[in-house]
């Protein structure tokens, strides 16, 4: 195999603070079926939402070093908080392309809005960072952005309470403010939130466009790989066990959750000591 083809068949690295980034992995598997994924979930140190920028930078650098050892050809920061606090700084330190989940979602929302009023829901860290607002205002200075932290959505999604009355109740409380603000577009600004899409849709109504940054990130990854000549030509049907999953803690519960949402079955998840990197 020549070096160009060898580069193309290298995996895509992906990381998140835990299991939420699996929604991004799911979209990549669906939309880029030829690509191999090496996924790292930082399950020992989740959540990132309430941590400082310095801490998230340190964690992200450790994970990137680990993924580089796995010989990845590109890295997807499948975590809104890490995309907000670490992506721009770390990108300049790498010789491989790196994308996050914030810009693709922001761009799509700017294209989708009709009345110039965009809502963003996410963790406290993502909303406090103001990064979605910053990207949106660069693209559309005329747009008004209304952010709302929805911290309980993450544990509800992880508990599998996707349509539970408690989840419906919390969605009603969290989203009431955004409904009053007459938004016509809502960014699901946390990788867990696409799992609660049907409840969010029910509360917001059909007239509000829901933007799923996980899907938009998969589309951006495809464009990036095509632009850099790194898209894989391999036949996915010939590569059994080609996706690899690593965590910093609780591999079994991670695998169980992953198998409940991914289009492929994960047979093995390996725990590593990320502090060594």
Structure class: alpha/beta
* Measured distance between first and last alpha carbons: 31 Å
What is the CATH class of the largest domain?
A: Alpha Beta
Extended strand count? 10
**What's the architecture of the largest domain, going by CATH?**
3-Layer(aba) Sandwich
The number of helical segments is 13
Label the overall shape: globular
| Low confidence ranges | none
How many domains make up the coordinates? Answer: 2
Content of β-strand: 15-25%
Q: If you consult CATH, what is the topology of the largest domain?
A: Rossmann fold
| Major sheet description | 6 strands, parallel
Mean pLDDT: 92
Note down, in words, how this protein is organized.
With 277 residues, this protein is of the alpha/beta class. It folds into 2 domains: 3-100 and 215-276, Rossmann fold; 102-213, Rossmann fold. Helices cover 45% and strands 15% of the residues. The protein has 13 helices and 10 strands. It has helices spanning 3-8, 22-31, 53-69, 80-85, 87-91, 102-112, 124-129, 131-139, 153-158, 165-180, 197-204, 213-227, 251-261, and strands at residues 12-16, 37-41, 74-77, 98-100, 117-122, 144-149, 185-188, 209-211, 244-247, 270-271. It has a 6-stranded parallel sheet with strand order 4-3-1-2-9-10, sandwiched between helices. Helix 2 links the parallel strand 1 (12-16) and strand 2. Helix 2 (22-31) packs across helix 12 and helix 6 (102-112) crosses helix 12 (213-227). The longest helix is centred in the first third of the chain and has 17 residues, at 53-69. It starts with a helix and ends in a 6-residue tail after the last strand. The relative contact order is 0.19. The mean pLDDT is 92.
């Amino acid at each position: 195999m020549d070096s160009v083809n060898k580069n193309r068949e290298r995996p895509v690295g992906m990381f998140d603070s835990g299991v939420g980034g699996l929604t991004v992995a799911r979209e990549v598997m669906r939309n880029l079926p030829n690509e191999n994924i090496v996924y790292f979930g930082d399950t020992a140190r989740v959540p990132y939402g309430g941590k400082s920028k310095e801490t998230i930078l340190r964690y992200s650098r450790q994970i990137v070093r680990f993924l580089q050892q796995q010989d990845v050809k590109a890295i997807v920061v499948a975590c809104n908080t890490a995309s907000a606090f670490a992506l721009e700084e770390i990108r300049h330190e790498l010789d491989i392309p790196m994308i996050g989940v914030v810009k693709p979602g922001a761009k799509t929302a700017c294209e989708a809005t009709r009345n110039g009023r965009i809502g963003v829901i996410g963790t406290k860290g993502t909303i406090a960072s103001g990064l979605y607002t910053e990207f949106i205002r660069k693209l559309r200075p005329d747009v008004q952005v209304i952010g709302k932290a929805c911290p309980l959505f993450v544990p509800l999604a992880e508990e599998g309470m996707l349509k539970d009355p408690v989840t419906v109740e919390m969605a009603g409380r969290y989203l009431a403010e955004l409904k009053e603000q007459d938004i016509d577009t809502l960014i699901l600004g946390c990788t867990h939130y696409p799992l609660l899409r049907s409840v969010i849709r029910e509360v917001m109504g059909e007239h509000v466009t829901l933007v799923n940054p996980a899907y938009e990130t998969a589309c951006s990854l495809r464009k990036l790989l095509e632009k850099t000549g790194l898209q894989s030509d391999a036949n996915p049907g010939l590569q059994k066990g080609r996706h690899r999953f690593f965590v910093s803690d609780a591999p079994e519960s991670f695998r169980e959750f992953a198998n409940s949402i991914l289009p492929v079955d994960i047979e093995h998840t390996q725990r590593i000591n990320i502090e060594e990197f």
